[in-house]
């Protein structure tokens, strides 16, 4: 398994998990599944959204990959919000 943060913004954390498997011991890993997990932080006392630190780039990160992951995370967050609003109207 391989997991990485797609986005941390506002009260939302988004983590992508890839499931990898080898055909045989000498073969290369191939992706056989994946999951997207979204966490929403809440204040224990007030039950309102709790702001998490925004995701920032480390000097050890691949800047292009990190930027792309963050953009994907924001796109998914926007889509999810819009879908929730559409679902409430129907």
Folded structure, characterized:
The protein has 90 residues and is α+β, with helices and mostly antiparallel strands. The protein has one domain: Roll (Thiol Ester Dehydrase, Chain A). It is built from one helix and three strands. A three-stranded antiparallel sheet has the order 1-2-3. β2 and β3 form a beta hairpin. The termini are far apart. The model has no long low-confidence stretch (mean pLDDT 81).
CATH topology: Thiol Ester Dehydrase, Chain A
| Unreliable stretches covering 5 or more consecutive residues | none
DSSP strand content: 25-35%
In total, the number of domains comes to 1
Under the CATH scheme, which architecture would be assigned?
Roll
Structural class comes to alpha+beta
Total strands: the figure is: 3
The CATH homologous superfamily is termed: Hotdog Thioesterase
First and last CA, distance: 38 Å
Largest sheet: 3 strands, antiparallel
Taking all residues together, what is the mean pLDDT?
A: 81
Shape: extended
Order of helices and strands: EEEH
Helix content: 25-40%
Indicate the radius of gyration in whole angstroms.
Answer: 17 Å
The number of helical elements comes to 1
CATH class: Alpha Beta
What spatial order of strands do you see in the largest sheet? 1-2-3
């Amino acid at each position: 398994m391989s997991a990485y943060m797609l986005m941390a913004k506002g009260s939302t954390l988004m983590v992508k998990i890839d499931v990898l498997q080898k055909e045989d011991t000498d073969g290369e890993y191939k992706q056989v599944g994946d999951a997207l997990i979204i966490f929403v932080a809440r204040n224990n006392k007030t039950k309102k959204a709790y702001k998490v630190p925004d995701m920032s780039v480390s000097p050890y990160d691949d800047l292009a990959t990190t930027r792309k992951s963050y953009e994907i995370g924001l796109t998914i967050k926007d889509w999810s919000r819009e879908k929730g609003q559409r679902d409430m109207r129907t």
